[in-house]
Amino acid sequence: MPLNEEKQVNHMKRSQILVGSAALAIGALVLSGCSGGGSGGDDGDVTMTLWHNSTTGPGQEFWDTTAADFEADNPGVKIEVQTVQNEDLDGKLQTALNSGDAPDIFLQRGGGKMAEMVKAGQLKDLTGALEGAATDEIPETAYQASSIDGKIYALPVAVLPGGLFYSQDLFDEAGITSNPTTIEEFDGTIDQLKAAGIAPIALGAKDAWPAAHWYYWFALRECSTETLQSAADDLDFSDDCWIKAGEDLQELAALEPFNNGFLTTSAQQGAGSSAGLIANHQAGMELMGAWNPGVIAGLTPDKAPLPDLAWFPFPEVPGGAGEPGAIMGGVDGYSCSVDAPDACVDFLNYLGTAEVQTNYYKAFNAPPVNTVAQEAVTEPYLQQILEAYNAAPYASQWLDTSYGQNVGNALNVAVVDMLAGNGSPEDIVKAVNDAAKRA
Amino acid sequence: MMATLAPTVRRPAGRPARRPARSRGAANRARGNPGVWFVALVVIALMLGPVIYIIIGGFRTNSEITVDPAGFPVVWHIDNYLDVLTGGVFWRQVLNSTIVAVATSVGAVTLGLMASYVLARYTFRGRGVLYALFAAGLMFPLTVAITPLYIMVRNLGLMNSLGGIILPQIAFALPVTIIILVPFLKAIPDEIQEAAFIDGCSRLGFFWRMVVRLSMPGVITTGILAFIGSWNAYLLPLFILNNDAMFTLPLGVQSFSSQYSVDTAKVMAFTALSMLPALLFFSIFERRIVGGLTGAVKG
Amino acid sequence: MPHRENTLEAESTTADLANGDGGGHTPPPSPARRRRSRGLGWAGRLEVLILVGPAMVVFLAFVIFPVLMAAYYGFFSWGGYGPATEFIGIRNYVNILTDPAFIEALGHNGFIVIFSLVLQGPVAILLALLLNRRMRGQSLIRVLIFVPYVIAEVVVGTGWSLLLQTNGAVNGLLDKLGLEALKQDWLSNPDIAIWTLMVIITWKYVGFAVILFLAGLQGIPEELYEAAAIDGASYWQMQRQITLPLLAPTLRIWAFLSIIGALQLFDLVYIIWGQYVAATAGTSTMATYMVATGRNAGNFGYGNAVAVVLFVISLIVALIYQRFVLRRDTAGALTEGKR
């Protein structure tokens, strides 16, 4: 029955040889590809590429204008501005960096990713190269997030501390006369809001990090600065304060303060997100970073900033080992790739000047790091945020950024599990240790 | 010779095929059977529900969607749709997407058909390995292979060009194309092939002249699938294309997501509009799925 | 009329995977076999080269090579930037296979595979039968049924999210209809979430099945139905005796593609549930696990290792499927396969 499957040995060999040589040829082709780095010649005419993540409106305009202004001041330098959507930026950037195709100037969020880039030698060391306003008018604390082992790898442009954004109108409706400063007062605020039929807290737990932020803030209040530092350095979470922070969060969750369906509510993804709830007066407050006003503005009925938006810092936890007034926030910065021309550093210095920083603030409605530019801030809540930030004894980055993605991710997931009723504070610590195994 | 179609069916020998007179119990000829219509309508309603939601969503604002998710637009805001249609970006992206999708489907179907023909109708050692190799291409997620793929495209000098999208997409469309086409090609009865050879046709000639037409349903189907796959592809264009002018449609959604937020209503409007070309393509070609083997072999 | 053997059997002896066709009925082999030549002459081999060559080159360059490179990283602990330097052998693989989260995801995939077939198959066959007749609006209905498949997954995800969120459109609609009692946490309730996922998957991919079956139905000659009608067969009898067996090859191909697709499922789950809640809600898949513990956790070596595991599992399933389903006459077939 089987037919003429004549074993044509030559046959098989031929197909295999073909396949094999094709693979070899392609392999050779790939391996021979050289990684070009940087761009621009060295005889005065320099072209640089800039990657940022503002795909719309004022943000995009800001970058186009700033690049044009810099080109005008520096003849012979050309900057090509490229926008990449926020969610996609990291992946695209990583691939570009790894293949030697990196843009010259790009958004840097710090943390574990920056550490990896430094380890791979993909970032330009800016220590000592920054000058002018960048060093004089931007405080040291802002550079903490952009430095590793004392070397600076990015210029900070905005600081985005976290806190409770709330709707003054809704608070008035609930009869709340003063903002809570301790956690007990906070619980009281929640009760008042519930009594008035208002969802106290909007939480976008679908993205996990908003939920985890609650945990991080409790940790910031419960853990001493040294504990937090050693957690960052050695990934040591053995201190009791981590469990206590989890218990604090559990107690808060037991009051059922979050909006209905918080597990499936996203944080910022347009309509139906927790920011959207705030924008439409469907919830009283949200714990979020200083970018929130901009997000909320796009989701209000008239697409204008929410007029009654206000802010107060995360309440203190009496008995916690954390320093009162400590604050947590992200820092956006811009880095140069290692092969970028010197004009890149000049551009960063330009970015740090008060004038550009003021424009940045206006475009993004985000607190600038330049202290001179900070004086131009008009929104009351932004002023409050800056005040709290500048007065803080200790400013930490978001914990999931500090501890690197691996641990950060595990923390995020574990907190969501706990809020969904699937885990305990001890499980959070366990999740971190499990994650360390996978690194 | 009277070549009827190959598939084996218990048919009493000697009964000629002839058109019967109006047959009773012709349930399969019932047109407009109300039960059938009802079912069809229900199915369509279910299928289209979410789609209509998206279309209508484009007429609302983000705020409305947040506050009243299940509601109809109070005021039909057409500015979302207008913004998309009048911004020149949309049409350029439609053009780019069309070029890429057409090239991908033509390429995938051509290469896939040639390869499937070999796999279906030749015998040689290593054929199984070849088929397995193509099938294996289905099983590795693209999200992981994207970095080495990016490097390959870059080394070929195809960065930021539509060619850098088209070629890999053809490659990724090949497994499904081949898997679907091989049985179609196998089902072509040998008699036709032998008849062609007797008439002096070579294997390649047979391929060009007859196989393509005989396997038309399969060819159209795989072409449509390749087109849709390319039309919606997001990851590869994202990584390869840096220049706004080269963007394909899925990337266009980016311009409605700012750094920290998404303009949901605009995204819905944009999506509703970007569906249309793909649907148009489908509706043009789906009629051609009929045909193929039937009628090709009578007498 | 000489009994036509099924060409599908004629080639059933070469290696297993080559027979991606399904045997259909198995007639006893008749002596009149079609065998042109014994093996291929030079001309034949050249033809093979010309025909397969281009596809092969493109495929190797853009699929196989990247896959091999990606698999290579699975043996490293790699932060994603710069070259991979920390070789750790199979540690990643050990971690994956002992991680309860992965096993859970694997279980979900199994569930999805089975119910994709169970839910989509019958519905798609019925729809294809419906759409195969000449009737008014046939083209239009075909287009409409295919619409979900056409929409990009990203948008499907966004749309369904808005519909199914706890404070989303579906619950809103139930409110308006006075049916509050039926409101559920469609997405976050672990008991319901996976069924919600199945509904969404069916919605999206039944069009794909229908179009495949439509193409397959074209190969069934009218005369068979007519002859059966003469013999007095009822509609459903005809479907069972004629349509199903003859559609079987197409069915088997569709099932194969559906299984592989179900194993690789990613976009829908990721966009609707997000990487975090997926696990809590019981809808995580191996692919979401891969992204959550790999790319999003900065463990790229680990993520690549998961991709390799996913590949191997798909391959094993495919081989089993090929051996037991796509080849009905096994005599002599298995021995030729392995080299």
Q: TL;DR of this structure?
A:
The complex is a heterotrimer of chains A (439), B (299) and C (339). Chain B has 13 helices and no strands.
Give an overview in words.
- The complex is a heterotrimer of chains A (about 450), B (about 300) and C (about 350).
- Chain A is α/β, with parallel strands linked by helices.
- Chain A has helices at about 10-30, 55-75, 85-100, 110-120, 135, 140-145, 170-175, 185-195, 210-220, 225-235, 240-255, 275-280, 290-295, 345-350, 355-365, 370-375, 380-390, 400, 405-420, 425-439; strands at about 45-50, 75-85, 105-110, 145-150, 150, 155-165, 200, 285-290, 310, 325-335, 395.
- Chain A folds into two domains: about 45-160 and about 330-385, D-Maltodextrin-Binding Protein, domain 2 (3-Layer(aba) Sandwich), CATH 3.40.190.10; about 160-330 and about 395-439, D-Maltodextrin-Binding Protein, domain 2.
- In chain A, the strands form two sheets. In chain A, strands 1, 2, 3, 6, 7, 8, 9, 10 and 11 form a nine-stranded mixed β-sheet that branches.
- Chain B has a domain at about 90-250 and about 280-290: MetI-like fold.
- Chain B is globular.
- The relative contact order of chain B is 0.14.
- Chain C has about 350 residues and is mainly α.
- The radius of gyration of chain C is 24 Å and the shape is flat.
- Chains B and C meet through helix 1, helix 4, helix 5, helix 6 and helix 7 of B and helix 1, helix 2, helix 4, helix 5 and helix 6 of C.
Work out the number of β strands of chain B.
0
Look at the structure and give the CATH class of the domain at 91-248 and 279-289 in chain B.
Mainly Alpha
* CATH level 3 topology of the domain at 91-248 and 279-289 in chain B: MetI-like fold
Assembly of the depicted chains = heterotrimer
Number of strands of chain A: 11
Percentage of residues in strands of chain B: under 5%
Broad CATH class of the largest domain in chain A? Alpha Beta
Instruction: Please outline the major beta sheet of chain A.
Output: 9 strands, mixed
Unreliable runs of chain B: 1-31, 291-299
Give the full name of the CATH homologous superfamily of the domain at 91-248 and 279-289 in chain B: MetI-like
Tally the helices of chain B: what do you get? 13
**Main beta sheet of chain B, described?**
none
Q: Measure the end-to-end span of chain A.
A: 55 Å
